[in-house]
Amino acid sequence: MPGGDGTGPDGQGPVAGRGRRRGQGRGLGEGFARGPDGECRCPNCGHREPHQLGVPCYDKKCPKCGSPMTRA
After folding, report:
1. What is the pLDDT of residues 12-63, one digit of tens each?
2. Phi, psi (rounded to 5 degrees) for 63
3. pLDDT score recorded for residue 19
4. Which residue has the higher pLDDT, 4 or 23?
5. If DSSP codes are grouped into helix, strand and coil, which group holds residue 41?
6. What share of the chain is helix, strand, coil (3-state, %, to 5)?
7. Sheet of 48-50: strands edge to edge?
8. Which residues of 9-31 are buried (b: 16+ CB within 10 A; e: fewer)?
């Protein structure tokens, strides 16, 4: 491999399983996989309630105004 950088022989593109590992090491997305603790919050009126294990906040509706909740 020229240069040992994982690009393979000239003109043949990257070698499978090698390269620069782009796209790895991303942080957690907003509201995803944050664990069992925390709160669900209404972005419209600000109502907060405890997060329930196994129930995503975005699947819950605010009991005060009916807007979808988000993870706080």
Report:
1. 655 555 555 555 544 444 445 566 779 999 999 999 999 999 999 999 999 9
2. -70, -20
3. 53
4. 4
5. strand
6. 10, 15, 80
7. 48-50, 39-41, 70-71
8. eeeeeeeeeeeeeeeeeeeeeee
Amino acid at 38: G
- pLDDT on residue 31: 47
Q: How far is CA 7 from CA 14, 15, 25, 51, 64, in A?
A: 4, 6, 21, 47, 57
Cα gap 25→48, rounded to integer Å: 31
Read off the amino acid at residue 32.
F
The letter for the amino acid at 10 is D
Amino acid at 64: K
